[in-house]
Queue: 2 jobs
Job 1
Amino acid sequence: MMIVMKEGASEEQIQAVVDRIEKAGANAHVSRGQFVTVIGAVGDADSRVAEAGLELAEGVDHVVPIMKSYKLSSLQFKKGERSVIEINGRKLGGGHFALIAGPCTVESREQLFAAAEVCRDAGVPFLRGGAYKPRTSPYSFQGLGEEGLRLLAEAKEEFGMPIATELMDVRDIDAVLEVADIIQIGARNMQNYNLLTEVGRSGRPALLKRGFSSTIEELLMAAEYILKEGNQDVMLCERGIRTFETGYRFTLDLLAVPVLQQLTHLPVIVDPSHAAGRRDLVPPMSLAAAACGADGIVVETHHDPENAVCDGPQAIVASEFAAYAEQVHRAAELAGKTAEIIPA
Ligand code: PEP
Ligand code: MN
């Protein structure tokens, strides 16, 4: 962090800034120019210096941050090497493109198994399904809870597919860890820092969804909460943000994909289902996501969407899923990725 003093700042004002930098735990390096003095705060206490409010100190003109506020997630942290998340030999990230597909929520064994079968037959490596659902209305179906987890465990056994499922509440973490190979943190919980810390401590791969009013930097800072507990396996998910547009549900921010990949070593995946809210928009946005370099797509499918209890209108109809997956895999390959396709 650089503190640029006002022209003519007094020695007392410069010394006061130096004292405050040192009090925050950093070293101060003073460079005196002909007109302006610049003070560099050097050391491992960037955030404490930032919080010291030096921009308001007497004689300070402005403050320039030098380091990014996120560290462990930054591409520099791994010297440019990209993270690969590997679960049961199935890879996502670092050149491997993977689909994570399944129903929005687990409704019954019949419904979950129908989706799992279609996904497995299409070569999908990871099965998704929510047992705990973050619903906007408290009157909507909230998920089957532990019964849903039990059905997911059965599907995992039957189809041999690792499971991605959402954790909403720290109190459910032990139950979720029984079955989840990937713990999903929903958009609404992206800034639930206690939850993120516990997922970090669990060491289980995490799928962190971008909050729909969160910036890219806030998403990376949320990932830091998981990473700083020693959990390296975090995938970031763009799932649409809120804008002024009302022509569809959310604005899928695909620019976030290449931009995140310039900033972080973590895999970046896209959820076109929740952004679109309509199944006709899901295939084109999936192709666009794969083409712009996403490391994976998380997508919803249902064998009978008209009777789905949750998110039916956005579910790819099961009978169309294989063709959908094939196209998406081709787009990923065009973008230079290896599509992770598991033979049934
Ligand atoms: C989901 O994936 O089922 C979900 C509810 O997503 P989001 O948290 O992005 O709304
Ligand atoms: Mn859903």
Job 2
Amino acid sequence: MLKVLVLGSAAGGGSPQWNCNSEVSKAVRNGKDGTTSRTQSSIAVTANNNEWFLFNASPDLGSQILKNKQMHPKVDLRHSPISGVILTNGDVDHVAGLLTLRERQNLSLYAHERVHSVLKENSIFNVLNPDYVERREMRMNEKFELKNKGGNGLGIQVEAFEVPGKIALWLEDESKGDNFGTQEGDTIGLKISSLEDGKSFFYIPACAKMTDELAERIKNSDMILFDGTLWKNDEMEASKVGQKTGQRMGHMNNSGNDGSMEALRNLNIKRKIYIHINTTNPILLPNSKERKIVEENGWQVSYDGMEIEL
Ligand code: MLT
Ligand code: MN
């Protein structure tokens, strides 16, 4: 058994985004058509109903913990069902929540060595006292069991792999050319399996392009939570809130010949769910034609608090 709890279904900035007045952000604020608010990108997973692992730690983690009773302390004066965190990149929306996890709690923290080195260079992350928080390097294409700080296995197996992507926005270096200094390991995907019954799913909240290798890997799977950032590549410009394209930000669009609906269409994946969705994306509006299209194509749009059992 694996249980997945979507803590945050939005991309960086959340929905509504604090300084955004575009259609979706406004619809959330006005409660139009039941458009719900979404916090920034993170899921929690458990294989035993007691110990949860966070997959990315969002800047909204404090409110996500408050909102989801599964995340509340249960026993003793100091306790958390959160055993640790695993990171898929160094984006603000995926690492800033680590700062919420200070206060001397035992945790294990898994990431690619590249992301660990970024955290190490930023001394603010020293609030994660090494006496309590063990940083563990995650090697690509090797299966391992998630363990808590004490070394006890949680029954969740992970296999990490690199996917096409980009260095975190706040680390971009224009002097390094077209890819802004992106290195291998800056963006990874994860296959997450139950050691008990072998059930598994993929979690890929950022992906710039579908490659043959990635398609082969995810083919025939039971479920995927996939990068749903933008409906179309020039969406930010079209909605007059920015110039950057999806490709420039390291994200595939949902629609179009180069989009994720097309790329995953014939891969025989039983359940396909968009996550990490930007507030400009019209699939967030329950009555939009774009929402209808993704649903007709067999996709679900994740929401905060969504629970999935495998
Ligand atoms: C992204 O996924 O593109 C980033 O989270 C953008 C950001 O840092 O806001
Ligand atoms: Mn992001």
